[in-house]
Design brief:
Helices cover 0% and strands 44% of the residues. It is an all-beta fold.
Length: 163
């Protein structure tokens, strides 16, 4: 009997998180490092503005269930940051997330803007269907407190693409 191709697009995570993220349609190609929650209770984001941060308490890319959450800065005092181009993402765009174990592919399902800095519970699940959630700031900037809103790119598993 010939080998069957799986219709589930997952990789063996082996406990490894993402190391690279690419969304070619908007020119995004960035290193990813693990992050946690800061002392203020907010999701930490790498301070250099060049790297994105994978919330290590969420699912690794390619998991069979739960959210993989990756966040990045929109800008820094020196200009555009790692997720500046994320504002151009649209449904249907393809996302590739690389780990040491391989690559997981995703397809953007929705791009939404929500008021406030708190991550909505609907984007952070451990038992629901697999998804990738990319997060950055957006909206009006308020001196002393930062951006008012958050941009969420919600993507579902799809075969990885290479360009």
């Amino acid at each position: 009997m010939p080998p069957q191709r799986s219709t589930v697009h997952t990789i063996s995570t082996g406990g490894w998180g993402p190391i690279r993220l690419a969304l070619p349609e908007v020119g995004l190609d960035a290193a990813v490092v693990p992050v946690g929650v800061g002392t203020d209770g907010r999701l930490a984001v790498p301070g250099d503005g060049k790297s994105a941060g994978w919330w290590k308490d969420t699912a690794p890319p390619g998991s069979r269930q739960g959210s993989t959450v990756i966040a990045g800065h929109l800008d820094t005092r020196r200009g555009a940051a790692v997720f500046a181009s994320l504002t151009g993402a649209k449904p249907g765009d393809r996302v590739a997330v690389t780990t040491r174990a391989g690559m997981a592919g995703y397809k953007v399902r929705a791009v939404t803007v929500r008021r406030g800095a708190a991550l909505p519970g609907e984007f952070i699940t451990t038992k629901g269907p697999p998804r990738l959630v990319l997060v950055t700031c957006t909206g009006p900037y308020r001196q002393g407190s930062g951006y008012r809103d958050r941009l969420y790119v919600d993507a579902t598993p799809a075969p990885p693409t290479t360009r």
